[in-house]
Amino acid sequence: MDKVTTWLWCNGTAEEQARFYTALIPDSAIDRIMRAPLDYPGGTAGKVLTVEFTLAGRRFALLDGGPGPTHSEAMSLSVDCADQAEVDLYWDAFLAGGGAAMQCGWLKDRWGVAWQIVPRRLTELMNDPRHAAKAMGAMMEMVRIDVAALERAIAS
Predict the structure, then answer these.
(1) What CA–CA distance (Å, rounded) separates 55 from 80?
(2) Helices 147-155 and 132-140 sit at what angle, rounded to 10 degrees?
(3) Is 121 in the same domain as 95?
(4) How far apart are CA 131 and CA 156, in angstroms?
(5) Which of 22-31, 63-72, 75-84 has the lowest mean pLDDT?
(6) Rounded to 5 degrees, what are φ and ψ at 117?
């Protein structure tokens, strides 16, 4: 069990979000759903208050706090992708239903949570002094990261 859990605020979508994330990412599960035991000013008995879940072995939780703070890129979740097929899988899934693409492999899902969809090859190239500049230059021109385009960039 992680000593630190990342909590995300949401507005009535905690269970939906947790089910989406855990269905999409391997080694994930919903661990606990806490429901209101009685009526309260913001809702009724039985309403979801929090959902605790595991994503790829890491603990997260969603607080169904109602209208309130919005997400920003100041906090993002990064997905390490083995190859282009995995990049495409996550990219398309997170954009479905109203997500928004951003530069350099970043996007926001339909709930406004920022994600970085990163092919492992980009990380390798960025950590290799022989290729880092060309890889970074190519990445800066991309929205969805394209591994084949990175390879072409470093070969030129």
Answers:
(1) 12
(2) 130
(3) yes
(4) 11
(5) 63-72
(6) -105, 100
